[in-house]
Q: What sequence folds into this?
């Protein structure tokens, strides 16, 4: 993989990570059409996602610091939440458990069989339709003036968010798409669902990225793109991702997720057509 290919993939990662359209699916598909013509790999994908999560950390730095500070103080007081920030810290930990457990249990399948493009196309379409249904419901809740805010988040909803995020281990589901769909289905506002999806993703994405980073240090063949190209892609993902966060939160506070539903269904259909005509190999 050349430097410009890595930078292009970093751009794709930054553009798609926070939108409910699956960044891993886009990296998997776009990689097939680059001159190197191949799957960038799970290791490359996980490591450059560190760049986009750093963008989340920088953008939400004040809220993240408040959560960490209150959580540490609550831990010193026996683990009892002392305020909403400490409570949010505990809920993020609880919500991160499903994706960590399932990621360890199904690691081999995630890195091999589940990257099949037929599966990616199916999940893009199927979960796109689920997002559409949840968005319609969210519109009705908003019309009644009854959407939940993150102040309403409890353990039950936190676990459900976590299970939805774990589905993103399958390329095409989308981490943000899964958690946002769950949030809308539970009656949270569009902006609240998006904000929590960003916060919940940080432990899982940083953890997965650092794990792949350590593994790649011991196995130089695990990272086909090379370290220089991978770092460059991560930097590009950070810069583009930061801009996307700002724009995305502004858009979803005013408009629906319907355009992303159409996009997911169209992309899934295109992949199936390219597979059927032999232009893509599963």
A:
């Amino acid at each position: 993989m050349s430097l410009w290919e890595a930078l292009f993939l970093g751009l794709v990662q930054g553009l798609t990570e926070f939108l409910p359209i699956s960044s891993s699916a886009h990296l998997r598909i776009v990689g097939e059409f680059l001159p190197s013509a191949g799957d960038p790999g799970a290791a490359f994908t996980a490591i450059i996602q560190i760049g986009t999560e750093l963008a989340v950390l920088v953008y939400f730095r004040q809220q993240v610091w408040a959560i960490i500070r209150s959580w540490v103080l609550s831990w010193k007081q026996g683990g009892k939440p002392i305020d909403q920030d400490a409570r949010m810290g505990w809920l993020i930990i609880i919500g991160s458990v499903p994706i960590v457990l399932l990621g360890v249990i199904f690691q081999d399948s995630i890195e091999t069989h589940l990257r099949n493009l037929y599966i990616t196309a199916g999940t893009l379409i199927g979960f796109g339709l689920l997002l559409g249904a949840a968005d319609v419901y969210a519109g009705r809740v908003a019309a009644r003036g009854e959407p939940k805010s993150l102040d309403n988040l409890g353990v039950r909803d936190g676990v459900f968010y976590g299970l939805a995020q774990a589905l993103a281990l399958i390329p095409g589901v989308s981490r943000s798409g899964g958690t946002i769909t769950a949030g809308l289905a539970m009656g949270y506002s569009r902006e609240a669902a998006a904000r929590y999806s960003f916060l919940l993703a940080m432990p899982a994405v940083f953890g997965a990225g650092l794990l792949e980073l350590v593994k790649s240090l011991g196995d130089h063949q695990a990272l086909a793109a090379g370290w220089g190209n991978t770092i460059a892609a991560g930097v590009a993902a950070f810069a583009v991702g930061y801009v996307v966060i700002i724009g995305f939160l502004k858009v979803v506070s005013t408009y629906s997720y319907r355009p992303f539903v159409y996009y997911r269904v169209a992309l899934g259909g295109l992949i199936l057509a390219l597979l059927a005509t032999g232009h893509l190999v599963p």
